[in-house]
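Data follows
____________
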Amino acid sequence: MKTMSDNKLNVISSSLAHNIDLDLKKQSLYFGDVRITEEDIKQLLLMKKKGIVFTADGSDTLKDINDQHTINDENENGKKKRKEEDGKNIILHDKKECLNIKRLRIVPTNDINTSNSGSVIRCDDNSNNINYSTNKKDKDELDDNNLKMISAINCTIYLTKNRINKDIDIPSNVFINALYMDYYHIVMAYTFFKHKKHTDNSVFEIYFRTCPFHGKFAIFAGIYEIIKYINSFCFTTSQLNFLKKKMSHYPDIDLFIDYLKTVSGKDISIYSMDEGDIVFPNEPLVIIEGPLLICQMLEAALLNLVNFPTLVATNSMLYKIGVNQKMIAEFGCRRAQGPDGSMSGSRYAHFGCDFTSNVYASFLYDLPLIGTMSHAFITSFKYEKELLNRYINKHDFLNIIYEKKKIIYNLYKCDMVNESELIAFIAFAQINPANFFCVIDTYDTLQSGIYNFLIVALALHEIKYKPVGIRIDSGDLAYLTKECKKVFIDISKQLNVPFNELKICVSNDINHEIVKKLENEKQIDLYAIGTNLITCQPETSLKIVYKLAQINNYPCYKKTNENHKATYPYKKNVYRLYNKENNLAVCDYIQHYEETQPISNQCIDYVHFENQKAQHVTLTPAHVEKKVKNMWDHGKSLIKFKTSKEVKQYTLNELKKFKKDHFDKYEPTPYNVCYSKKYFDLFSTIVLKKSV
């Protein structure tokens, strides 16, 4: 930050008054990016005591407002000054004294006649200020190095105003915009432009090569965010100025920047699987068709918008399968890799999870919400006097607690019970009598927590409330949950209460290995999984790719030293074939996009190609389903956005269309992805040519 000097003054609009920040650490005020130090404030106060302030117009000199004020020519020391009280403000006309002020106070616009006085603050030309002038062409954009986040937010506002379809929301993440790319994308785009290849018709495909988490399937997610992104795709003036600056050494950069001004989501078409589809390796999940320049620039954003959503959706479903379809609560809000990782994780973990603890995700995506209590809550209570009162409704709850405490102490050995834990449970029950769900391992699960829980649970039961259950967050979860279940069953028999129905929840850094160890523990009702679910341990990425399949109707093929990284040329269609025996899916069938669609009950010749080996097979499907559909056509959205609940139900219905063997926890059977004979012949010809 620069300080005010005696340099020539520069005008800033009075709207800067709405951009005042206070930095307590630096003991400074900021007007926009202009720092006001303690010394500056002292000088301002001194000037205020003298009755001095100033106003300025848009010129390079201070304004003399003779028509608004009377003049006192002499003061007692014989010096000339002119001043007049005008409401709250005093107008300074001693130009020399004004120029010595390091920082100048902003005069509110309702305090002076701004129609004549112009702007109400000036700063030196060297300060790095924002242009707040009301006639700025793109006033919603802030192009200031010290206010990049404000620039990002205002970029979002700009994109919101300029999105193609107004009934489609903007992307969930503020960072997803046209500038979201790797630098080599813009370099390639410029090179395409210079070679006049930028308008070549191209076809790119998004797919993954191997299934994550050692499984044999994935759940596709992210197409909704892709459509939102494409719908709002355009460069802002600030972004184009940034690119022009970074690429100023390139010739004809102005022509390139002018072209970028014209690109938008109207230039392309998108085909894809449905949100929530069950998908497999090497089949196109998303197909992007349009001018080479824009399609290449979309790579980073589109991969990012599919990668993590598909990964966490698949991870959550594998957890659901691992716990034998028992309830799962996603507890990853504070464990995720950043706020976006948390919000996206909670949203897409819903495919396999029944609840989330993430309040904002529940608000945005209408996800079922759940929560218990923390250890901090329990340790914060010490004495009975801390309780609000004795009652729940009109019941003397404390008196009932004393009665139930005697009963529990007579039935069980309670020498190690922590009394402050009981106070905490009582406090929670008084405010949440219908949601009494306690963490019981703060002090000792079996010596304290379980008995204090029972005391309060019995008291709630007596006044017609149904306690929910317990959560254990440490220790040997299998052993502790078994022992707690025994106590629930025992108390149910001895006191004739339905406590054998109380829920038992486990947490504590649960992962797939722990789930395997606990899978036969029938007493566990709910798994609360945080870190390893939302961060997708141990998979760091889906390893999804974005490959050019076709250019100007010619196939594009990449052969590398690693055969598994070879690409699949041509634009394609994908169909799911179902058998006649039980109408279950048996194969995903890929063909050249110009081929005739396969027909139900007609024999199909296809090739199963894996590990450089081809197997020719025939099949007469009972049913044929087209999987890759046109979702976006040059600015027209063809997709119907479903709610999170609807997408989850769609996925659950899709899972029923496959043999259960494909989703086995231990040895899942691979699902066949095959190719039409015609496509395989075309592919083989290309590979043979490239090999020569």
